[in-house]
Design goal:
With 267 residues, this protein is of the alpha+beta class. It folds into two domains: 84 residues, Winged helix-like DNA-binding domain superfamily/Winged helix DNA-binding domain (Arc Repressor Mutant, subunit A, Orthogonal Bundle); 127 residues, Arc Repressor Mutant, subunit A, CATH 1.10.10.10. 49% of the residues lie in helices and 12% in strands. β2 and β3 form a beta hairpin. α2 packs across α4 and α6 packs across α8.
Length: 267
């Protein structure tokens, strides 16, 4: 290839380089300033997005609502917490969860219009105390029985809370009043008690031989040990008057209706 041909090929490249230099010289400092401003704007936008991501993570991970002072302490110094919270709240406004302020603190919560789809009914397991188990057993085997008789058998006082719990479970009910001075109230079990423990009648409660075979009674029980027959408590009992109308209003006997809606707690 001749020198003239090389020169003709190189000239277009040289011309392009010269043109770029001339354009840069013509634009001067303003072009550099515009480029710097554009770069700074991009950096600011990127920084804000990173701050938003950090704020979002802090609020999602928090076990409880966070106040602005706590959030400021975890964000970079240049972060505008009010602007970031407003932006994040706007972004989540139409989503399944939203950012809300509660008592001066911020948290994510589910959207109100989704409440029906998120409702869940759960039955909390409940465990009877030893005192409640003993009281229920005494009532089951000795009914109709007064509070004083329960305390005499157990050897300790019966707390009101124990009886209230058994009433709440609808396992016991006031049966009547003893024909003795003071006419103390007597207690007995309910159809709900039979239903929960799978008994056809109160007479199906395990007897002494059953309990001994199950290991619930010591094989060396005293010779004078007496265990009542629970079946004797069915029907009318001598020495007991039924509750009058005032008693029924006081103790709300209608709550013993078999059709009453009571959850099946694990006891």
């Amino acid at each position: 290839m001749s020198d003239d041909e090389e020169t003709r090929i190189a000239d277009p490249i040289s011309d392009a380089i010269a043109s770029l230099r001339a354009r840069a010289e013509h634009q001067g400092p303003s072009a550099d300033r515009e480029a710097s401003e554009a770069l700074g704007l991009r950096l600011a936008v990127d920084t804000e997005r990173e701050n938003l991501r950090l704020l979002e993570a802090l609020l999602f991970a928090a076990a409880e609502p966070l106040d602005e002072e706590t959030l400021i302490g975890r964000l970079p110094l240049e972060a505008n917490i009010q602007a970031l919270l407003a932006t994040l709240a706007e972004e989540y406004a139409s989503r399944g969860v939203r950012l809300v302020e509660v008592g001066g603190r911020w948290r994510f919560e589910t959207a109100p219009d989704l409440a029906d789809a998120l409702n869940e009914v759960r039955q909390e397991p409940r465990k009877l105390s030893q005192a409640a188990l003993e009281t229920l057993s005494i009532i089951g085997y000795h009914q109709p029985v007064t509070r004083a008789e329960i305390e005499e058998i157990r050897g300790v006082a019966v707390s009101k809370g124990t009886l209230d719990l058994l009433f709440e479970l609808r396992w016991i009910r006031p049966r009547g009043r003893r024909r003795t001075p003071g006419r103390p109230l007597t207690y007995g079990t309910t159809p709900r008690f039979l239903e929960y423990f799978g008994l056809a009648s109160i007479g199906d409660l395990p007897g002494q031989a059953d309990l001994k075979a199950a290991g619930l009674l010591d094989a060396r029980i005293p010779a004078d040990f007496f265990m009542p027959d629970p079946g004797r408590s069915e029907g009318d009992v001598d020495g007991e008057d039924p509750l009058d109308e005032e008693d029924q209003r006081t103790f709300h006997i209608d709550f013993m209706d078999d059709d009453a809606d009571v959850g099946s707690e694990d006891i």
